[in-house]
Amino acid sequence: ARLFNYNSQNKAWNTKPSWEFEHEGFVLSVRFSPDGKNILTGTIHRKARLFTYTSEEEAWHQEPSWEFDHGESVRSVHFSPDSQSILTGSADKKVRLFTYNPQKKTWNTKPSWEFEYGDSVWSAHFSPDGKSILTGSGGSAAGLFTLDHFFVQNPKEVMLIHSGKVYPKKDLPE
Description:
It is a single chain. The protein has 174 residues and is mainly beta. The chain contains no helices and 20 strands.
């Protein structure tokens, strides 16, 4: 993954990266945290990686500060609006939610919540207010989950979209 900066004097983007984050293989998804202190990557090597910015050194850490293991490649990564939670979508058919523990100043590397689809998850995003999760997977399925203090409410709240129509989970067509 590469970070390019905007040169305000030249009013143009630099053509050479200002920072590179090493990975062993393909990087499938990248995201800045809303507070600008972290970069999250999803990789083909079954990991989401979190890189942090150090204000004392005014530099990004070259090595990941945290790694979040998955069963298959991580195709989608997203931060909550308050930068305190991470959402991932993976080829292992799961959406996962990881949370930050502010008392310990550490990320929980085990998911706080996960949901399994019948096919790979291609996309996972928080709503702008951080109260819902929207996901997309293969097989023409999308899920809408509502959150309450970062715990996903009961599965009956799930809505799935198939072939362009929205159905409550209990009314899904066969």
